[in-house]
């Protein structure tokens, strides 16, 4: 198992190197650049040239890349020019990470705790009202664009009913204490329960929005998988042995049906990051997705590099975790 | 077995949470929180900002979001009369130029202190100027406003600033190399605000570095900006994207803050800002899209600013030699139905421009009539120039809205249609604003393009100088036979000391530019807006976006 993990991690380093090379070259081949975003309407060609030189953007791309690589090895990934001017891009990543993790975890929990039971019961009552109803719901989840769902939720819950805030992470007037920068957790740890509750309220609408796609996908896979397992001989045998419904459900049906579901959940973690870009923009939620969208619009090279590399690394790690989880659920995989 | 494992896991989690919480404790100021919204003067104004401030040291800034924050914390020697672009006393109570216009004597307000207790006096003023003038290499490229207005550092050849002398505690003399219309108005720019010399020394304000293809600012700029203004900096919560300013209770001016706090919540998406306002989460935001004006007028306080900008169609004869012929440029101008364009594409209150400066600037020539929409005349001019089959590439920006240009693609389409109607073949060239548009147009690569400018202060040079003073700049006026003449006129008129004489000179120049030169086609001036919720009053909209948010009255 250890050797397997080490080999996968070494592969990850290679993948990251290739991604960084492609990314670096691609970014600099895009028209424009940070100079435009920094200087605006007034600048003369001379001012632009001076700034390019100061920032080292006048050097050839290979030279710039070597500089980047050399700095990156020493933990310096460059400085944000626009998203949070003057902030080290890696610091910015760590400042924004808790927000996105908090949001993604809540969204994933919402998706999993609704999709798996719903998928199971839909399959059990195949063709019934619950089944049809939830299939339609899951179709809506996939079909409705994230930004539209966000707008609709905000319209009702924030603007019409004033129940939940439409943007941001926490009311700044609360002057909450920060420890981990996971706001809900911080509120609980410091016993500032109003701050925790306020942070949670800010999370609800974006989390529902972000959960819509993973919910639909997990639901459909669970349903299909349970349907398949229900028809297996061993389930029929268990039933004819007179085992209780609970034991059949737990030991035989869900245990076997969950394997593809776990893979799907793993893949959805990657999809959550993609979804976070839209969701966070729509909700003005200060996470990584919001930073990525802004960095792209304003050509903030350092931030784009760090965020995209981190996303690639995240993807690799999640896949590794899924493989490990597989091995735990199904020992046959471990022995191979 | 499974049940035992789950229970154990929950117990472990609970125990670790308890253990962690015992060493974590609330650090917040309970007193501050409790005061809440009890009375009007303890209210918070929550303003939705479109972007994070780049730095809290306005000297290194050039963007509106940074300046908005700076304007609440800092003051300059001069300021602007609320709601106008007129220069007004601020930290200086009066000023007088010498006969040659090169030595300016400022009388300073007395009894003023920076928020760290450092006294504000002539010595502090000179320390500020010395600091601005003595920048390291990175600082010289980062302080765009000094470079653009003062022309250099440390006594460089063309530098405008020549030195500062403290005559006595309340009198300061500033020397400049030539008389200019910019003085003293430019001292009202947020970049040239007075900052505490003690705090700047302590937190190494000039310690700016270019690192990893960006600028790294000093501790001063990141966390210790210290001014004399009605508000003072409290904190920038980066993970929550909010900037909090609190009232400066020792503020020496008459316009003391009526709110206890001003909070800037950074929400980059415009629709998200609009919804945050509608839900009551924020109390206002800047530059609402003109499409939303009718709804905002109904539900909120939509404040329309006086128009202080110009949208123009830049032309570059070096890129497209067909444009060298004045008749061709005139034909292109006559072909555009600007009345309709302004009515259909620009917000209420927008006007057709007759010259390259808005009508509130001294030197505006009232006698100039707009080029009337006349497609027939356009066609005959093109024919006379032998360019009946003119082809032109028209650039327009995407992924951007500017105060003078709310919807660039729609403006482009209107112009394209008008030009096609007179037989001009138009090739569209859309580019993202930060994705090549600005670089391309500023470097003089675009034959025809949409661009504009919002004034920094009320002088014609701030507009005309920006457009035409560089012969190799965006409109490459150096390519025309009259280029040198225009260049000289710009610098001569700027140096006229007497204000009335200067205005007359500029009126003449504006006429010449429009009738004899026509290097580009001024399109319109349009008023941008700022919006507050119904419960906020007391903020005067400013053509310079110099809104005094601290004067807001927030009702419950």
From TrEMBL, chain A:
SUPFAM superfamilies: MetI-like. GO terms for biological process: transmembrane transport. The keyword Acyltransferase does not apply. CDD domains: TM_PBP2. InterPro entries: BPD_transp_1_N, MetI-like, MetI-like_sf. One of its GO terms (cellular component) is plasma membrane. It is a multi-pass membrane protein. The chain crosses the membrane at residues 9-27, 103-123, 135-157, 203-221, 257-278, 302-329. Gene3D superfamilies: MetI-like (1.10.3720.10). This is Peptide ABC transporter permease. The lineage of its organism: Bacteria, Bacillati, Actinomycetota, Actinomycetes, Micrococcales.
From TrEMBL, chain B:
GO terms for biological process: peptide transport. Belongs to the bacterial solute-binding protein 5 family. GO terms for molecular function: peptide transmembrane transporter activity. SUPFAM superfamilies: Periplasmic binding protein-like II. Residues 1-24 form the signal peptide. InterPro entries: Peptide/Ni-bd, SBP_5, SBP_5_dom. This is ABC transporter substrate-binding protein. Residues 86-472 form the Solute-binding protein family domain. Pfam families: SBP_bac_5. Keywords: Signal, Transport. GO terms for cellular component: ATP-binding cassette (ABC) transporter complex; periplasmic space. The lineage of its organism: Bacteria, Bacillati, Actinomycetota, Actinomycetes, Micrococcales.
